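Example 3.2
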Amino acid sequence: MMKALLVGCGYWGQNWAKTLYRLDALGAICEPSPHIQQALRQNYPDVPLYEDLQQALSQADAQVVVIATPVPTHLQVASTCLMARKHVLVEKPLTLTTDDAATLVHLAEENHVTLAVGHLLMYHPALLKLRGLIRDGILGDILSVQCTRINMGKVRNEENCWWSLAPHDISILSMLLGEPFEPVSALKMNPLQRDIEDTVIVNFATPSGKTALIHNSWLSPVKKHETVVIGSRKIAVFEDTLPAEKKLTLIDYDLAREGDIVQDIRKGSSLAVEYHADDELLAMEAKAFLTAAEHNSPLDNDGRNGLQVVQILEQVQSMLDRQPAPFAKV
């Protein structure tokens, strides 16, 4: 298995270090913080540790790079690694602008290396099972996909809930819709902090007429990480906060019509859907990236998918910026 250089070992980078080490794929770590370095030397005494990225790229025995640094650094760090002809996985979102994301995609293609983005939920076995059900026609024609990611969670000061939470749901929509989608309307609320949205609701449409919705909030007393896929025959519900055996459910329903008018919707039986999980999500993502880098195999979470996510993030933010929003300090 290829060895990876991990760049950045903060909150999420620590998870990458544990996962890559367990897979015997942690070749080196680049981390400038002396405090973090001390812990790394204790936990991974046999793994080379560097402070300088250029030194790490030239000296470390690593063919791939995993970047878990703050998002504003992604362009510079990833560009340096791609120009060194390293295969690169960048944590989400890929960059802060579409132009920067396109630059990284171009650099990867120009240097004939793999570029991936850490859209972890694209490896969730329940969502992969759901995509298979859609492709097999079990749900019938797909009418709509609705993603809800709400909680009374950590409020951030440097980014809004859209940039913090929506990358998960945009990547899920890219998995399940099976075609491009564009935002058509957006609603925001920001009662806690001026110019930082606490709740965002966005409607999307596809060329074939499917609809989609994303609802993100860190100001909800109810925690819900739910994806609902409405088909012409069945409805699928994925709720990630439930135990594994209850996460994915298929629901029958009937429409009572009078001519072209729907009079009633009757809910039928529900069936929990079994799925197989090979490993922890991050390990599954890591193995897929390492395999793609070694064998030049395709990835769902490749650079172009990451570019699509950033494009939508930026499009919606532009829509939100044009809207006035009442501000009430609470």
